[in-house]
Each structure stands twice: as structure tokens, then as C-alpha cells.
Amino acid sequence: MALIVQKFGGTSVGTVDRIREVAKRVKESREAGHQLVVVLSAMGKTTDALVQLAKEISEHPDERDMDMLVSTGEQVSIALLAMALQQEGCEAIPLTGWQAGIVTDSVHGEARIKQIETQRIRRHLAQGKIVIIAGFQGMDEQGAITTLGRGGSDTSAVALAASLGAQLCEIYTDVAGVFTADPRLVPTAQKLSAISYQDMLDLAELGAGVLHPRSVETARSHGVHVVVRSSFSNEEGTNVGRDVPAPGITGIAHGEHVAIVTLKGEGIRSRTPVLSSLLQDAGIPVSAFVHGSSFLSFPLAKNQLQKVAALLRENREQLGYRELEEEGGFTMVSVVGVSRHSAAKVLKEIMGRMKLLHIPIRWVHQSERRLSFAIRGNKAETAIRTLHRELGLDGREELAAF
Amino acid sequence: MALIVQKFGGTSVGTVDRIREVAKRVKESREAGHQLVVVLSAMGKTTDALVQLAKEISEHPDERDMDMLVSTGEQVSIALLAMALQQEGCEAIPLTGWQAGIVTDSVHGEARIKQIETQRIRRHLAQGKIVIIAGFQGMDEQGAITTLGRGGSDTSAVALAASLGAQLCEIYTDVAGVFTADPRLVPTAQKLSAISYQDMLDLAELGAGVLHPRSVETARSHGVHVVVRSSFSNEEGTNVGRDVPAPGITGIAHGEHVAIVTLKGEGIRSRTPVLSSLLQDAGIPVSAFVHGSSFLSFPLAKNQLQKVAALLRENREQLGYRELEEEGGFTMVSVVGVSRHSAAKVLKEIMGRMKLLHIPIRWVHQSERRLSFAIRGNKAETAIRTLHRELGLDGREELAAF
């Protein structure tokens, strides 16, 4: 008998019918003899609808009040799944974040889990119950309801698996696992049977939406065995773990709506640490800077551009730049799993292919095991499909080429 | 500076615009220098919608899970009002039932408040904040979310006023106060400026929906000064309190969809205590029995008829009746505030008037300060309007007649 944490996302519990399907799946695992903790997101677009309601009242509602509001979404899901499970003849108990003992810091809207007081969960498990827990939410030490930010239910699930010492943390989602590229964009994308924490983290940070980066960090630091799989099929998913041999290139991630900011001026390169800490303090950590002797450029999510541009103008003197250039409309394409010795070869391949396709590369950045470059958004599909093929990801047998 | 509890019902917070109106009203009281605790119901039909969602999953969902589900309704209201108040420049803190320290027993769906641990509320009040509390809900001693049943927000408000020693508990609703009859039915109904706890309790129990009986009981036992008033106007409301001189007849209440159950058989009268305790044990307390030498009859809400009929059949031997008669479709009309010495005169007036109107009276019951009688539902409007006029309630000056 294993203890398994199963997490179902918003699409998986999007309707009453889907909640019934989740109940059936949970029941199967139960009948296979496992102890189960089930973590749920809010139903489908519930969170967005609640946010919309708030916006009608206030343009900038207090984050504390937002947490009070949106945390109702998961509370509805867990109550309904509990009913569906009782209907299936399974004894289940729904617990909100605070009832489950999920203690966070007080950063409303982006809280981090500090600890999980698992006594209540363990007591119910010992009584043979399936414990259903509201993801995405917790309580701070003053008793205020907090939320972990978007994607936070993944983090709840992994943190619960870590605290409970679960053998497995299954993340059920609307895709069948982690792919070598976004299958909606690249029809030849291959599902990975396994991926290392580091490569998963890279993919997650670089735009692959399947897991939230914070959840991957939590999994890595506690060695939680995560499986990403579909809630709509019985297909085997992708194992995320420590001892995964590097398979050469792991995949291609991409992030849309990227802007590139460039500061120009003599000696600007030396101001990188100042700029980096300015951005950090503003809550916008940037790790990838590209610089020449008289320029310094970095990518940003487009929706952060306005805030950053204002920040840079305010600190013009301190940063000592002559000119500020902002340009939007890019997609950042990242190749993940590039080993040190093959990096030059992969980069050459990318440059050559983009040239053949007449796709200008605006910005390139190389770091440990990954290569990122920015191209115009409308060229992304062609570029990614071509690279996916040429880097040997369409069929794994060609992988040895790199 | 007074401490005031203000409660706003579902209609008063039914839309974002109405929530804004409530915020303005609360702000006015704040600017008048009062400390404020604001208790809210769920927005409009939210609770019904959540119940509907549950019914799609399970015909008889667990009450514990229902409480988890429907308690989200008030949580949404309090979050939105907090935002609206911040928008108005008022500092406010929303608290769920459990955060507000409302401790109940564990009877899910119909919980009773055992105590209120007011430290957290008092701390926020001392910091100058308006404290917004989710009505209708609490937490039991095991940390499970409970609800108080329909109308429970009134009870939350009155219990909070009692625990906090508030000077006033204002119940804002969609009518301007307590009337001598339902103004939707009787256009000449008069608003009462004051009413005693006992008469209010009678009206509430006998069908006047303006206050929940349990909240009136709580107000009476703690001497809470309650005012019922409109959330849509500045009209003065109705004061509910201890030292209200009995004004003669207070008003006419009516309850629709009433069934009359009659047991026939020799000596059946002597079985009243047995019957009474059977019904009590089944959670259907009946206080008004009418009996003759060979019959025993009592009224019921129509939706309880099936359950009670089954119970009576099961216990036929013990009850020793020969025949069981059930008849639905009645409206119970009750005249409240009938003094002992005028009871006979009022009853005679009722009987006479109904006879003139050709409205058969099916069942009559007289008790301390009230007279109730059942008539066919389709005759109720005519009967109540006529009695309202003839008993002098259309204009208070004629009141002295009784």
C-alpha cells in the first residue's frame, strides 16, 4: 500500500461530469489499495470569473481581499468531489488549505508554503478516508487566507507529497505528459517518458505550461517523484525525478509576448549588477543579460514592459545609459538539454536554419544546458517545427547526432 | 461612539452595484463615529445556485460537504464588500465565520452557535477597522465548517451583537421594517415603529419572513436591541426590544402550503403526548394540536407531509388511531397580539367575517397572545385584507376597539 498524492487541474474538474470522472479515477486508485490525498484546483474558469467580479468593484483590489475571494474556487471543487466520491461509495473528507494545515508566509497572491502541519490529514488517512485538499491556498501565521499564485495547486500537491513522505505525486492535466515541444504547435512532438528535475525546471521556466516552476523546485529539493499524466486517458505519463540520464536535447520550450529591452551607452556593460538588483528589488528577476561593449539587453514578459521602462527612466542617472530601446512582439525559443560540448554545434545549427528560413534572430543567450533566442512571434511556429525536426526530436533515433 | 452590528441580506448585496451601495451606507455610519461590525449573507441567489450544483452530483449530498460548499457564498460577499470599502477610503477586514471565532455545534446545515471568541474581532475594531463577517456560518470544535441553516445570517448578527455588547443590531433588508401584514398582500399594511420580542417571535414563527425566529430568540435572551430597516432607503425601521407596550393586535402573519393532518379514533386525545414526542424526535416540533373526543389534528408545512405520514403509519399501533386523514393546500392565518381578555371577541369577529366571505375555516387554534386558523390558500388574500381592515390595522386609531 502506497501513499499517493493526486492533483487535478482546473480543466480536469471543469464540469460536474468531469468531477464525476475524477471520482471514478480516484476510486480505482483506492481500490488498488493506495492511501490517497487528492489536491484540486478551482473548476475551469472560476478563478478568472471571481477576478472579473473584483475588477468591477476596484481596479486594484487589496491582495488580501483577493485571496479571500478566489480561495472560494477550490473550496467549491473539493466539496463537490467529496460528494461525488461518497456517491461512488468512497469515504472522503474535504479540507481547505487552512484545515489541511498548509501554513504560508503573508505575501498575499504569491505566498510561499512555510510548513504543513499534517496531523489532521494523517488522522483522516488513518481512518481510511480519501483526503481531498484545496490546492493553491493556505493560511498565514495570523490566520489570514493566502494563495500561492497561478499554478499554485501543483506546488500544493508536491509540498504535500514531500511533507507526507508520499511515494508518488501524480499531476493529472489536459495533456498526456511532458513533450519535446508544445504539441499544439508541433504535431510531431514526442512525449518524454522521463525527465530530470533540472530539465523540467528549465522547460517550465521557459514557457512549457505543464508544471509550475515553483512546484518543480519543491520536488527537486525534497526528491519527490512526480508523474505528469492525462486525466482523460490511461496513457502512461512523464516521470520527473532525480536519476534521469540526460538524453541529449530534451525539448524546445517557447514563451510568447516577449519584449527585448536594450540600454545603450559607453561602459554600460559594467552596470549589469546595478540593473540586476534594481529589477530584483522591483520583483522582476532577470537572469539573462546579453552585453557588448556599448549595449546591454534583456528579455521581459511584455506585460512587465511598462513598469520596467518607467523604472529604467527613473534611474537613468544611476544606470548611466545614453539611449533606451524597447521592442515587443517576440517569441523566446529555448532549446533545453544542450550539453556543454555540443552547445557550439547546436547554436550553429540554429543560426544556419533560421538563416535558411529568413528568420532574423534578435537576441541569443546561452547558459548551463540551454540556448535561448528571440524571433518575431509570427515566425515562431515555422522556426520551432523546423528545429524540432533538425535537432532530431521528431524521432528519438536521430538523437545521437548531437 | 457606539458599537453597531449591521447585517445586510442577500438582496442587499445581490449585485456589484448593490455592494457599492452597502459600502456607502456603512461608510456613513462610520463617519458618524461608530465602531462597526458588518454581517453579510451570500449574494442574491448564490446559495441556491450552489445547492443546484450539488444536486447535479448527488441527490442527498452529505450535510458536512454542503456546508463546505455553500459557505463559499458569504466568503465571496465579504471579500467584495471589503474591496468596495477600501475603494471608499475605509479600512476594513473581512473575516469568515471561523476567523471571526464563531463556534457552533456539529449539526451541519442547522448548527447552533455555542460561543463566539471575540478577541480577533475586538483587536481589529481597536485598530479602527470595519470588521466584515460572513454570516450563516461558523466552525465546530473539530475545525469543520458549519452553517446555521436558512436565515442564519440574522442569527449570526444578533449573536455577534450579544457577544460584543453592541448597542444596536441593525438588520437591513428589502422591506422597510416589520409590518402589520405582508405588504405585498395587503397594500394597507402599516409599518410598526416598535414590537416586543414575543410578538416578533410569534410573527416570525407564523410566517413573517422578515426575521428568522432563532435570531429573535437570541435577541430576547440577551436583550439585544434590534432594528429592522430597509437597505434601499433612509426610512426609519422597526425597533424590536423588551420594553414595548403591547399595542393591542400587532399584526397578521400567514404561512402558505400548509397541510392539516387528522388522526381519528376513540380516545385518541390521550395520545397527544406520545404523538408530540414522536414528532419531536423526528425533528418536526409541533406545538399546536387541536382535539375533540375522537380526533386529533395539527398543521404541518406541506413539504414535511410525506415524512410525517410515513412516521404515523409506522407507529399506528402505538398511536392507536383508526383513520389517518391528510389534506393540503391551506394557508395558516395568524393574528398576533391578541390579549387574553379580547381573545373571544377577536375570534368571534374572525368567524363572522369568514362566514360573510363564504370562506370555510378548517382548523382553529388559540394560544397565548395569538389566534391561528387554516383556510384554503386561494382565499387567503381576501381573508387577510378583510381582517386587516376589520381588526383596525388599516389605521391605528381604530385599534382601541379591541
From TrEMBL, chains A, B:
ATP binds at residues 7-10, 173-174, 184. Substrate binds at residues 47, 74. It comes from Brevibacillus fluminis. This is Aspartokinase. Residues 3-230 form the Aspartate/glutamate/uridylate kinase domain. It comes from the Bacteria. Residues 333-391 form the Aspartokinase ACT domain. PANTHER family: ASPARTATE KINASE (PTHR21499), ASPARTOKINASE (PTHR21499:SF3).
